[in-house]
Amino acid sequence: MKITFPHMGNVYIAAKTLFDDLGVEYVIPPQTSKASLELGSLHSPEEMCLPFKIMIGNYIHAIENGADTVIITGSCGPCRFGEYCELQMNLLNRLGYNLDFIVIDSPGDIGLKELVTRLGKVSTGSMCNRMDKLKAVLTAVKVVNLIDEVEAKARYLAGFEANKGECKKLLNECKNKAMDCNNGKTMIEHLKKYIDKLNVVKLDHSKEPIKISIIGEIYTVIEPFSNLYIEDKLMDYGISTKRTLTPSWWVKNLVLSPTNMNQLEIKRKAKEYLPYMIGGHARECIGEAVLAHEEGFDGAIQIFPMGCMPEIVSKAILPKISKDKDFPILTLVVDEMTGEAGYVTRIEAFVDLLERRKNHVLSRC
Amino acid sequence: MKVGIPKGLLYYEYQPFFQTFFEELGAELIVSPDTNKDILDKGVKYCVDEACLPVKVFHGHVSAIKDKCDLLLIPRIMQQRQREFICPKFCGLPEMVVNSIPDMPKATMTPFYATSKEKLFDWAKITGQEITHNKARLQKAFEAAMEHQSKHKTGFDDKGSDLRVALAGHPYNIYDNYLNMNLVKKLKKLGVGVITEEHIDEDIKIKEASKLYKRPFWSFATNNYGFTSHIANNGIANGIIYISSFACGIDSVVIELIKHNIGDFPFLILKIDEHTGEAGIDTRIEAFVDMLERRSC
Fold first, then answer.
1. What residues contact residue A35 under an 8 Å CB cut-off, 6+ apart?
2. Shortest distance, CA B256 to any CA of chain A (angstroms)
3. Between A162 and which of A105, A202, A278, B128 could a Cys-Cys bridge form, CB atoms 3.0 to 4.6 Å apart?
4. Contact list, B256 vs chain A (CB under 8 Å)
5. How many Å apart are CA A347 and CA A343, to the nearest integer?
6. Containing domain of residue A11, as a range?
7. What is the predicted pLDDT for the residue at A223?
8. Using H for helix, E for strand and C for coil, what is the string for A270-316?
């Protein structure tokens, strides 16, 4: 059994540690690229949303590299992500691939027993005892927290760095070298080393960079290919960015959600505009927009794939927030047809607008 | 008190409930006219571009009556069955409308769970507060509304014609004759009878849908998948027409599931959006009916 999984930002680093420690064979699909998207859109239903198409591309690439089992999380929210597993199974079967799917679904829907069996399937190839398995999972959670910390730090400090491009260089170096770490312990050490390195990056405190918050649909904000590397682009412009939705946030949210204690702050902020959970991360998007304004950000960029149902609702609400709080928000819709030139022009225009607002005499009134 | 009821989305399903409830409370009802060009244009103007056609049309209906009423009914329909949802856009509908259309009167924001009588009464209690605080009156109006709703029957089940197609899709696409360009009438003119999902037992639909690997968590998905599956397996109709609005997230999944399930059973998908040309639709329906005729010979 060779396990694979779809890409989503830095998840592959944590997954690598998990499978290394468990001693399970796995295949990491090649980084998402134009080739994966083209392959995915060739085989996917036309009206499906972008994440589905990219995932199909990931799977096929991984299968070519020898994978035979796919792990994917499910959900039962009103968003169509929950239906991915069934459609993807049918689709890959039709294409003639003989694959096993392990769908990690919520216990409320499939029953706790089924969930445990499915989880057990993941570690069938593992020689570890129960204690070591649990340890491996905890290490993986730690890794995902650390890599998200590295990323968040690098993205934020990019606006203040004295030597332009240093943070970006460190971040890329960190990710590249992470692939050489073969167990959880070295991975954690490696990531900690880079946090230290980022802590001593030379900063220019006289700078007042533009700060932008990235909000929107979780997959398209986390997977850099799907948003055409917007955060890297903003880093190059010397802009500090912040993004709340990360894989580590998702894990924390999942663990806390049965107690209803998850992301209290965001819920509170969103209450005025969208008091109910409507599926996907629409409420988070609204809450983050309000929060970004209160934290002194200059603007926010909302990203979602074409046709995303929950984000369409938040897109309808964001202009009101923008107007109420005098807070610029740009919405970018991505799909397989997104042209880079038009996309960049819009981002640049938005950044120009923020810059002028900042320099305007009345901006601090 | 004048209560405005927009004739869009699930109005076709819950019309007796809403109308009776507000009438019994002594409110004057302002129901928006049937969908027309003006309403569609207004909807497109106000609504977010990415939304689907029915949601845009709903915005149009709201803008047509918003100046004539004191309270606007925007049902936030969350669930129709236990453990199933409708669509994220329904759950956020009041927010979408209120934030997109300027100069709105007060709108109803309370979540509407059609899963049980108690939950429906919760909705009625809170919404009725706008008109009266008298509990007995609320209770009476609610009972009357429930009674009217239970008598409400929609759907088609034509018998006696040589050919019969199953018309699947969301209720607001099937019953809004402006959106679907009189599809049912057109089919009848071609001598084709129509059957819709309301005439198949709910248990059968749920049973069919439970054969899927993952239990569908949308009511629309259960209904349409179960319905078409039952039709195709038992040969109840000669073919299936699925009428779907462009960029509908639910349909993008359901249609794939149906296609995978029914094999080579005749299946026509009609996509509608605000640009749909009538001539193209006519041609496609005629070609489909021709095909069915030849198959049945």
1. A57, A61
2. 7
3. A202
4. 45, 48, 87, 90
5. 6
6. 3-126
7. 92
8. HCCCCCCCCCCCHHHHHHHHHHHHHCCCCEEEEEEECCCHHHHHHHH
pLDDT band at A255 (very low <50, low <70, confident <90, very high): confident
Written as six digits, the tokens of A226 are: 């799907």
Question: Are A103 and A193 found together in one domain?
Answer: no
Of B52, B88, B91, B86, which is closest to residue B74 (Cα–Cα)?
B91
Residues of A with CB under 8 A from a CB of B: 45, 47-49, 74, 76-80, 82-83, 85-87, 89-90, 94, 103, 105, 109, 273-274, 276-280, 282, 306-310, 312-317, 319-320, 333
The reply to whether A95 and A244 lie within a common domain is no
A171 shares a domain with A85: no
ipTM given for this complex: 0.88
Same domain, A133 and A114: no
Average pLDDT score over residue span A19-23 = 89
Residue B17 tokens read as: 């409930």
**Does the distance separating the beta carbons of A307 and B247 come in below 8 Å?**
yes
Considering only A104-118, A158-172, B31-45, B78-92, which range has the smallest mean pLDDT?
A: A104-118
Cα separation, B108 vs B130, whole angstroms: 9
User: Does the structure show a pLDDT above 70 at A76?
Assistant: no
CATH of the domain at A95: 3.40.50
Q: Average the pLDDT over A293-299 and give the result.
A: 92
A47 and A134 in a single domain? The answer is no
pLDDT in tens, A187-202: 999 999 999 999 999 9
Chain B residue numbers touching A44 (CB-CB < 8 A): none
pLDDT band with cut points at 50, 70 and 90 for residue A100? confident
Number of domain units in chain A: 3
Identify the closest residue of chain B to A85 by CA–CA distance.
B214
A110 and A168 share one domain: no
pLDDT over threshold 80, residue B63: yes
Of B96, B111, B213, the CB nearest to A276: B111
> Residue A365's pLDDT is what?
52
User: Which fold, B2-151?
Assistant: Rossmann fold (3.40.50)
Best probe of the A interface among B9, B89, B100, by most A CBs < 10 A, is B89
pLDDT for the residue A361:
65
Q: How many beta-carbon contacts under 8 Å exist across A and B?
A: 120
**CB distance B2 to B26 below 8 Å:** no
A140/A11 same-domain check: no
Domain B2-151 identical in fold to domain B163-296 = yes
Report the share of chain A in percent with pLDDT over 70: 98
As a whole number of angstroms, the distance between CA B138 and CA B253 comes to 41
